[in-house]
Design goal:
Elements (H helix, E strand, L loop, with lengths): L6 H5 L4 H25 L6 H14 L11 H12 L9 H8 L5 H11 L4 H31 L4 H9 L2 H6 L6 H21 L2 H15 L8 H12 L4 H22 L20 E3 L16 H6 E3 L15 H15 L1 E2 L5 E2 L3 E3 L2 E3 L6 H9 L2 H16 L10 H15 L14 H10 L7 H21 L32 H11 L5 E4 L18 E3 L8 E5 L6 H11 L1 H10 L9 H10 L9 E6 H4 L6 E2 L5 E4 L21 E3 L3 E6 L1
Parallel strand pairs: 7-8, 7-10
Antiparallel strand pairs: 1-2, 3-4, 5-6, 9-12, 10-14, 11-12, 13-14
Helix pairs in contact: 2-7, 2-8, 3-4, 3-6, 4-7, 7-8, 7-10, 7-19, 8-19, 10-11, 10-12, 11-13, 12-13, 12-18, 17-19, 17-20, 18-19
């Protein structure tokens, strides 16, 4: 026992050479966990569009597709896929949209990429995921470096340990999305700001500008870094305040140059009044109707464009050239529109459906991210954070000014994301705050020399590693013991917190091993069409899982080669008078809303009645009533029906009345009704 007080000194050393050795080992462990997860998991909802969009940037030189997010991660992820011969088909939705003057749908392009590359779809996404995996490994080193700079070399390894064994970092660190890369860029920028504040050298100022620019090319929420950097200066070097006031604008100019270079200078200098904006921030209500051809028929934002107009169009500012790329500004505008809520024909603002603790609604909660952190951070991490607070409150050690910097940065990110946005879709939106919390937690390992406290600290770090070992590779679905673990997490949080369409391959493997040849009724939340499983070497038979009532689902897209097309033509010929009468009585509604037609379609697809004996696999999001598109066995696309009173259908929550026989990755529940 007398040797135990030195255990943390051995595991989390102070000697620089041993620190670097331990960091190298953690990088290898982290990479191994991410690589295995990247192969096992299906392309998530957003990834389906991110990768092909990145390919179009290189091949066409335009960033028009999916400018909803900045392009850096998509550009980088596309490189290994291009080298492997991944192809985008420009003859379909791309050509049709360009001919009609409409924006190209990133989802249509993503699905066409999926079908064109179906036999190697899994391999191509694995190659693309090598980029975020590399960035996550760099993030581990940067978090260690930040902890070293703030709390000393002994804090470097524990901070890197927390990154390495963070279920939330591992969940998103292998996905072609912007969340973990944004966290990496936030840490890099803060490190750059500290270095510049301490030295005042011009090369460090330029490097800070480059980092700020790369951050803006990663995620729009990192605009917050322009507020964070001025906060860093008084912590790092109070005497540099006046210098920062004079010189920081130069770093901002460098950042603008990097942003333009990242977009290949496309649309830089376009007049402010010539932009077609959507958000309330950048538009005003129209006084006159739009000119002929100003709103192309079929435009996805037609209602907004018909009622609002660029607020700068008729002002002096409208003639000013914008020193930013066109699609950077348009992407920011779309993000702002979603944060405000999208105006609908009924005059109301409609946001994304969001869920917390059993309640599903179209606007968020200010405390959502605090609850998410409390339920999805391992208890070891929460204990270390509490230990840091206790150490400060009891003044048992001396904390210098710089050691409070991570708390201020994390609080700034969490506060603004909680109070200034309303998109509560997952913890991933506040991941840039998490590494700064890791630095706080790591400093606890350097605080106390007492045996009981050091034992608790050691237990906290071990707890995180055990949490990862228990959940691997299903990190997206991780919930701590306060939530009841991964099996109970859906009671509190859904969407990308647990079910982002990542477990289709896992389901196919389970069916082959446990129910070979048995057909399964499938309701899968995701953008990957289960039909490509056959081309990937899986042998499963599936059909559309039965909804509670036919009125709860609506057919929205009939696949081009679906046998359902000929059936619909035949049905319309035989029931034309009834269909015409129904449309006259229900103007503005889709023909697929017609009850008799809907029942005929479900019968044609051989969809059984609810509770018919059989095997069924249903995504957790659908069990919790989250609306999203899904596909039947002919690749036709369905959605939760929107009823005339504005409510959405609830087709699959009735499965919760049954006990699942398996939980696939904790995101797809398998039921066997006898």
């Amino acid at each position: 026992m007398t040797r135990f007080p030195r255990l943390l000194d051995v595991v989390f050393p102070e000697d620089p050479r041993r620190v670097r050795l331990f960091l190298a080992v953690l990088v290898l462990l982290h990479a191994a966990l991410l690589l295995h997860t990247a192969w096992r998991k299906t392309a998530t909802v957003d990834e389906v569009a991110h990768l092909p969009a990145g390919i179009t940037y290189w091949q066409t030189g335009t960033f028009a597709v999916y400018h909803h997010n900045p392009p850096l991660v998509k550009l980088l992820a596309a490189l290994p896929v291009l080298a492997a011969g991944g192809t985008v088909d420009y003859s379909k939705s791309w050509a049709r949209s360009r001919e009609r003057g409409l924006p190209v749908s990133q989802w249509n392009l993503g699905w066409e990429f999926m079908y064109a590359n179906a036999p190697r779809y899994r391999t191509l996404y694995f190659l693309g995921r090598l980029v975020p995996i590399t960035l996550s490994c760099i993030g581990l080193l940067l978090v260690g470096a930040l902890a070293w700079r703030i709390a000393g070399p002994r804090a470097a390894v524990p901070a890197a340990w927390l990154w390495c064994f963070s279920p939330n970092v591992l969940a998103h660190g292998c996905l072609i999305t912007t969340d973990v890369p944004a966290a990496v860029m936030a840490v890099a920028t803060v490190l750059g700001a500290i270095r510049w504040a301490e030295t005042g050298r011009w090369r460090h100022l330029v490097w800070l500008g480059v980092l700020l620019g790369l951050a803006q090319l990663t995620k729009f929420s990192l605009l917050l870094l322009f507020l964070v950097v001025p906060v860093v200066i008084p912590f790092a070097n109070p005497s540099a305040l006046w210098r920062s006031v004079r010189q920081f604008p130069i770093a901002c100019l460098v950042a603008v140059a990097v942003i333009n270079a990242g977009y290949f200078f496309e649309g830089t200098g376009k007049r402010l009044g010539d932009f077609t904006f959507l958000s309330d921030l950048l538009t005003v209500p129209r006084v006159t109707a739009p000119a002929a051809g100003e709103v192309p028929p079929g435009h996805p934002w037609a209602f907004v464009l018909e009622t609002r107009v660029n607020r700068f169009r008729e002002t002096i500012l409208g003639a000013l050239p914008v020193p930013l790329p066109e699609h950077y500004l348009l992407g920011f505008d779309e993000q702002r529109l979603e944060a405000e809520g999208i105006p609908g024909p009924d005059g109301r603002l409609h946001g994304y459906p969001v869920y917390l603790c059993g309640e599903l609604r179209d606007h968020g909660w200010w405390y959502y991210y605090l609850v998410a952190l409390g339920l999805k951070l391992p208890l070891g991490s929460l204990g270390l954070l509490l230990g840091w607070c206790v150490a400060v409150a009891m003044a048992r050690t001396t904390f210098d000014r710089l050691q409070f910097l991570p708390l201020c940065v994390a609080a700034l990110f969490l506060g603004i994301m909680s109070l200034a946005t309303d998109i509560n879709l997952g913890l991933r939106y506040v991941l840039p705050a998490v590494p700064f919390l890791f630095v706080l937690m790591a400093s606890v390992a350097t605080v106390s020399s007492r045996l009981p406290l050091r034992a608790l600290v050691a237990l906290a770090f071990v707890w995180n590693a055990l949490a990862v070992a228990r959940i691997h590779p299903h990190y997206l679905a991780y919930f701590n013991e306060l939530a009841g673990g991964a099996t109970q997490g859906h009671r509190y949080l859904i969407d990308s917190n647990i079910d982002w369409g990542q477990d289709l391959y896992e389901l196919a493997e389970w069916l082959e091993q446990n129910r070979p040849g048995q057909p399964v009724g499938l309701a899968y939340f995701g953008n990957v069409d289960p039909a490509i499983l056959k081309e990937l070497g899986f042998h499963i038979s599936y059909y559309l899982a039965p909804p509670r009532t036919p009125e709860d689902l609506q057919l929205v897209v009939v696949a081009p080669d679906s046998p359902l097309r000929s059936f619909l033509l035949q049905w319309a010929t035989q029931n034309g008078a009834e269909l015409s009468r129904w449309q006259e009585e229900n103007p503005g509604r889709s023909p697929f809303d017609m009850p008799s037609l809907k029942r005929a379609i479900l019968k044609e697809l051989a969809v059984p009645e609810p509770a018919t004996p059989g095997l069924y696999a249903v995504s957790v999001n659908f069990l919790r009533r989250l609306p999203f598109r899904l596909r039947d066995q002919q690749s036709n696309i369905w959605d939760f029906a929107r009823h005339p009173d504005g409510t959405r259908g609830d087709p699959y929550s009735y499965f919760l009345e049954h006990e699942p026989i398996a939980r696939i990755g904790y995101s797809i529940y398998v039921f066997e009704i006898r």
